[in-house]
Q: What sequence folds into this?
């Protein structure tokens, strides 16, 4: 099922999500197709909604090359790990942890095969989903230093917030349907 088809199944209480999806994804005027569809894929994976992830992957196949799709998946995978590690640093009052080396493999940060600014946008989006303030701050700082505008960053986060909410609604409706049986 495509992402558009999944959005069509959203219930009436999610009307605003449908409208926001339409303006932010279907009629996107703020992001390049690469920025947008990589964000969609990385965020769908981070949201952990099976239906949203499947639909996003189906739709992204016509909008991203194989290498770009793998890079978006890499951003989701690495940030899924890093966000937990660095969020722990942020939440712990013990400063000693921040001085310790991460000792986590992160080769994908350098070998993803897409423009660094684009990959950083995807990392920022996943970090926002995972609630890692330290990573959000770090990726935003890198993006701004590379000339990415606050408007572009805000556009990515708007898409992220709508997809996050769609994932929650899709999963809630699936659970409700199972409970009704």
A:
């Amino acid at each position: 099922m495509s992402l558009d088809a999944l959005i069509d199944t959203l219930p009436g209480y999610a009307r605003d999500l449908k409208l926001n999806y339409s303006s932010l994804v279907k009629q996107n005027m703020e992001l390049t197709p690469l920025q947008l569809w990589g964000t969609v894929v990385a965020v769908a994976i981070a949201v952990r909604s099976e239906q949203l992830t499947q639909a996003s992957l189906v739709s992204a196949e016509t909008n991203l090359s194989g290498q770009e799709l793998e890079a978006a998946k890499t951003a989701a995978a690495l940030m899924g790990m890093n966000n937990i590690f660095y969020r722990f640093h942020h939440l712990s009052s013990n400063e000693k942890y921040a001085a310790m080396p991460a000792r986590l493999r992160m080769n994908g940060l350098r070998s993803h095969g897409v423009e660094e600014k684009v990959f950083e946008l995807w990392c920022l989006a996943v970090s926002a989903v995972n609630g890692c303030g330290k990573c959000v701050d770090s990726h935003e700082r890198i993006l701004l230093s590379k000339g990415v505008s606050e408007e572009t960053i805000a556009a990515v986060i708007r898409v992220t917030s709508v997809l996050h909410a769609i994932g929650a609604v899709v999963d809630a409706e699936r659970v409700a349907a199972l409970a009704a049986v």
Remarks:
- The chain has one domain: 3-180.
- The chain has nine helices and no strands.
- The longest helix spans residues 150-180.
